[in-house]
Each structure stands twice: as C-alpha cells, then as structure tokens.
Specification:
single chain; alpha/beta; Rossmann fold; CBS-domain; 2 domains; four-stranded antiparallel beta sheet; 16 strands; binds adenosine-5'-diphosphate; binds magnesium ion; transport
C-alpha cells in the first residue's frame, strides 16, 4: 500500500552550531554568511509538507537548494536537526534500529542518479542485490527480482551481464533493484538526470506506466521543470533550504510564487502542459438555439455589439454551431418571419475537446477564420480560442492564462 508522509517543521543544519545558524537564517542572513559566521550550513530550513499516498511528488530546485538533504531525511540517511517526519503516522525518528532497518528494506527504496552495477554479476543478481544483503533466500530474491525486471521491461535480460546493456537499460536495472523489495515508497534522487533526453522521456513514461499498475508514493527529485511538470502530481520548489512553493504543475505555471519560481517556469514548454480548456475565453457572444426563431435576434445582437461571430448553444448548453453576421444575413435574405439559427451555421466547424493540449491545436486555430469553439466531454460549450488568444499564450512575457 502506498503510504502517506508528513514532514513537520523539519530543519537540517550541517555543522556544530545548528541553533546559531537557524537564528541567523530567521533573520534573513544569507547561507554564505551563516557558513562564514558559524561554520554551519543550512541544508533544509523549516519545511512542512504532506505527501499523499500514491502521488508522485516532485522536489525541484537549483543545485544546493536542499533537495537531496530533504529526501535523505525521509529514510533517515540524514537525521533532521529538528522537526518530525511521520510515515503512515509513525514518527520515524523514534523507530528502534530493527524497525528502521525494516523500513529501509521493505517500505522505502531509493534510486540514485548513478549506482554501481556489479560487472561480474548477472542482471538478475544485480537486481536482487539489496534483497541478498538483507539475507533473503536465493529462490525468493530471484522470484522478486524477476517480477521487478518485468516491471521495467527487462525480463528477457536477467541472465545477461551489465556490459551487454545500454546506459538506459542499466538505469532500468537500478530502478528494478529499488522495486525488488516491492516498496510502498520510492525515493528517486535525480534518477533520470544523467540519461540522454529520449531515454529520459522513455523512463518517465515507464514510471507513469508502472504507477498505474501499482501505485506507490514517489518522491522524485529533479532540476528539470519539464520533467517535473510531466510526471508530478504536485511539485515543491526549493530555494536555499526553503520550500518556496508547493502546488500542482498547473498551479505553479499559472501563479508562480516569486521571481525564483518564475525563472524556472519561463523555460517550460507550457503548450505541452496547458489544455484547450485552460486558455479558451468565455467572452464570446453566445446565443441560444430556439427551434424556430433566433436568426434575426442574433443578427441584431451582433450588429449592436459590433461583433462578427456568435456561438449557438442549446437550452442545455450543448454546443450547436457558429453563425456570423454574413451567414445570418445570407440566410435571412428574402425571408419573411422568424428563422431558426441552424439555417445560418457556418460549415465545417469542428469543436476542440477541452482536454486537447495546446500543442495540438495550432493548425486548427490558425486555419479557422473565427475563434474555434471548445467543448467539454459532454458536449457543453466551454469557450473559444482565437488566434489572438493563442498568440498571447505563446508570448511568455504576458500572463499565460487568465486566472480562474
Ligand atoms: N554532509 C554535508 N555537510 C555539510 N554541508 C552539506 C552536507 N550535505 C549537504 N550540505 C549542504 O546543504 C545544502 C543542500 O545540499 P543538497 O541537499 O545536497 O542540495 P541539492 O540536492 O538540492 O543539490 C548545500 O548547501 C550543501 O552544501
Ligand atoms: Mg542533490
């Protein structure tokens, strides 16, 4: 079972004068000055977080911001200077040695950026290494290692040796080794950072895939925001030991807390993250489709408001079609009496589904002479995207998305 982690007011100071260092940090003294004055280095400063069972929680930040220190406190590779860490309600600092060993062996596994595969051992034995060190029988550890290799797509390679594997495959063995004990919590410290971009993306997909098979609580450290946005259910951004913002990728892109976060966000490919529903505007003219009348009223409304197009919805808010001043005039030409709007629909208007990523709608928006309607899964009209809206979104100096 995936487990919840609660981090409560946790500090980590390296060095002999933790309290003096913390006092200075509260006064806003910089890390360098604190180190100069006390000889102590503030690694993590007053961090409180709750990580939900089964979520992929990404910790981001520049080098030296405290990410590794934070994650290593979760399995007590580093002991906090103060504060509490609860794993499924249990204060890990109070665990007896044997229980702590159990926690590390069974509940929490760690994957590092680089780890040593033993060249003279098969892939299977390499995968089972942790289990072997824990004293598990050969038969059982091989069975568990095989399951783990299956999960990372390497079941055919158990009998091979590490030097027969590509770099990406070796990294998968590292992941399999962490999965072999079937942990409920996985700590991944820059686990993919050394991989080349294509293999890295592949590994991210792999992680997301095996997360759908069996959910674990995953703390994933990265300094790459694209990676964080892609795999994170939530992301915490660290600076100088402090968590400066926590939120979903969407919340962070939408409302970066400060310039530091903004500087990360600027480099991100927002069009792969945001959906049509995020950028569609509702400020269009909307008219209701009423069986036998409406064309004349709609035309009047457009003329009065000096607008070219209107979106037609049913009484139940279902998207029906688009009409324009010209199409309405043409339909009404020579007609006496009420006329239904449907006779004035512009042809070939395919609405965009709300969950289409912005990357996939350029063509349609560019070709369409009017804003393209965006609909929810159930067909309700959600808004429309004009070329102007799209260009504004792509211009990252203006706010990407209307706050809503
Ligand atoms: N063992 C240590 N002794 C002294 N200072 C340390 C130690 N480990 C980390 N630090 C300091 O703590 C800060 C955070 O480091 P770290 O957690 O490794 O950052 P990150 O993983 O974000 O790059 C850095 O300033 C680093 O110098
Ligand atoms: Mg680190």
């Amino acid at each position: 079972m995936a487990k919840q982690i609660i981090i409560e007011k946790v500090f980590k100071v390296f060095g002999k004068q933790p309290q003096a260092a913390i006092d200075l940090a509260y006064k806003g003294v910089s890390k360098e000055d604190i180190l100069a004055q006390t000889g102590s280095s503030v690694g993590v400063f007053d961090v409180s977080l709750t990580i939900e069972p089964g979520e992929i929680f990404v910790v981001m930040g520049l080098s030296g911001s405290g990410k590794s220190t934070l994650v290593r406190m979760l399995n007590l590779l580093i002991e906090p200077t103060s504060g509490r860490i609860l794993v499924d309600g249990v204060d890990i600092n109070k665990l007896k040695d044997s229980k702590l060993r159990d926690l590390r062996r069974k509940d929490i596994s760690m994957v590092f950026q680089s780890f040593a595969l033993m060249p003279h051992m098969t892939v299977l034995d390499n995968t089972a290494l942790g289990l072997e060190l824990a004293g598990m029988s050969r038969k059982q550890r091989h069975a568990q290692a095989e399951t783990a290799l299956e999960q990372v797509g390497l079941s055919a390679w158990g009998a091979s040796y590490p030097d027969e594997l590509s770099g990406g495959m070796q990294q998968r063995v590292g992941l399999a080794r962490a999965l072999a004990s079937d942990p409920s919590i996985l700590l991944m410290d820059e686990a993919f950072s050394a991989l080349d971009p294509i293999i890295r993306t592949e590994m991210q997909s792999e992680l997301l895939r095996f997360q759908t098979v069996k959910r674990r609580t995953i703390i994933f450290i990265s300094h790459d925001l694209d990676e964080a946005m892609r795999i994170g259910d939530r992301v915490a951004i660290m600076k100088d030991g402090v968590v400066v913002q926590v939120g979903t990728p969407d919340e962070i892109l939408r409302n970066p807390a400060d310039d530091y976060v903004r500087s990360f966000v600027r480099g991100v490919d927002a069009s792969a993250v945001f959906k049509a529903g995020d950028i569609a505007r509702k400020s269009q003219i909307i008219v209701s489709e009423n069986a036998q009348k409406g064309a004349r009223a709609a035309l009047k409304m457009l003329e009065e408001q000096d607008r070219q197009f209107a979106f037609v919805v049913s009484p139940a808010q279902q998207y029906m079609g688009v009409v324009s001043v010209d199409s309405l005039r043409a339909a009404l030409e020579g007609h006496v009496g009420p006329l239904g709007l449907s006779l004035a629909y512009l042809p070939d208007v395919e609405p965009i589904a709300m969950d289409t990523v912005v990357n996939d709608l350029y063509g349609q928006v560019a070709q369409c002479p009017y804003p393209v309607p965006v609909v929810a899964l159930d067909g309700r009209f959600h808004g429309a995207i004009s070329k102007t809206i799209l260009l504004k979104f792509l211009d990252r100096d203006t706010p990407a998305v209307p706050a809503n």
